[in-house]
Every structure is written in structure tokens, then in C-alpha cells.
Amino acid sequence: MIRFVFIAIFVLVAALILRVVWRGLKSADLDWNGIAFALGFVVLAFYLRHITGMG
Questions:
Q1: Which CA distances in Å does 5 have to 36, 43, 47?
Q2: How do residues 6-46 score in pLDDT, each as one tens digit?
Q3: For labelling alongside 29, which of 3, 8, 14, 52 has CA 20 to 30 A away?
């Protein structure tokens, strides 16, 4: 039973943190092209690592 309490507290704290982050991202003026490029670069690196087995 105590495990459920800890899980519930963890989920609540995670939801509050995500809410704060979401509000911060909505109000910030971000360069989404740069963020998409960086994210694509990381995804490509993991994909090539998976395909070639190198890196």
C-alpha cells in the first residue's frame, strides 16, 4: 500500500514539474528550427549507431 502512495506522490510531482516547464516553453521565444535540427541530429546518430553498430 505504501508503494502506491509513493507512486501517487511521484506522479503528482512529475505533473507539476511538466506544467511549469510547459508554461515556460509557451512564454519563451525559442528558435524551433535550431531545436528541431539538434533533435534530428541526435536521432540520426542513434539510428546510424543502430544500423552500423559503430560509435
A1: 38, 36, 39
A2: 999 999 999 999 999 999 888 888 888 999 999 999 999 99
A3: 14
Q: Which of 12, 35, 38, 39 is nearest to 25 (CA)?
A: 35
pTM above 0.85, yes or no: no
Under DSSP, the state recorded for 31 is -
CB 24 within 8 A of CB 30: no
- Rounded to whole angstroms, the Cα distance separating 19 from 12 reads 11
Unique residue bearing C-alpha cell 546510424: 48
Q: Could you give the residue ranges of the DSSP H alpha helices within 1-55?
A: 2-27, 32-52
